[in-house]
Amino acid sequence: MDTPAAQPRTAWYRRPGAWLKRLYHWVLHWADTPYGVAALFLLAFAESSFFPIPPDVLLIALALAKPRKSLWFAAVCSAGSVLGGMAGYAIGYFFRTTVGDPIIRFYHLEEAFRRVEQLYRDNAFAAVFTAAFTPIPYKVFTIAGGICAIGFWQDLVLGSLIGRSARFFLVALLFFFFGPPIKRLIDRYFEWLTLLFAVLLIGGFAAIKLLH
């Protein structure tokens, strides 16, 4: 009797959520290496000026593995993000034509940039703080801050420091006090949570186009 042929396995990249779950576990392992904190700092820095993926993913992965160090991870993430925001400001202020405008065009946010200009005329500090704390693309605001020459310390740095720290330390405190239950929740509903994360990421880019 012939043995039934084995059913071909579906490619991992065609299975919904499969590649995200692999990436999640790959990111999670950095928490057990000497490079996890450095990677978090670099990701937070890059996301504030050009990189599309927020650092929350790695922050959560590190906090999941070591909840007692989650506050330290949040501090590193906040520092990297604020310094990256300062770099974004420098890109807009000194390198608008060569670097700033190409980044804005890459994300198709030309119209959003004009809206951000109006927000800066109304209240620059509030605009920076809102972008720093919410899923709205923070990089657009840092680059636009340099182009519009908003106050560097009182608007860009202070708004970023408060907003980014509030966002990352809120995440860290949840894991610090409720680490094991949150880990079980993430493991159980990972696919739904990754979908929610994707919606928030895309929604952040969409929301900036509605600002007025």
Task: Characterise the protein shown here.
The chain has one domain (14-208). The protein is elongated, with a radius of gyration of 19 Å. It has 212 residues and is mostly helical. The longest helix has 37 residues, at 152-188. The chain contains 9 helices and no strands.
Protein topology:
Elements: H1 18-29, H2 36-47, H3 56-65, H4 70-94, H5 96-106, H6 110-133, H7 138-148, H8 152-188, H9 190-208
Count, helices: 9
Number of domains: 1
Q: What is the H-and-E element order?
A: HHHHHHHHH
Overall 3D form: elongated
Q: What structural class do the secondary elements suggest? A: mainly alpha
The stretches of 5 or more residues where confidence is low (pLDDT under 50) are 1-16
Mean pLDDT: 81
Ends distance: 71 Å
Task: Please describe the structure with a list of short key phrases separated by commas or semicolons.
212 residues; mainly alpha; 9 helices; disordered N terminus
Brief summary:
The chain has 212 residues and is mainly alpha-helical.
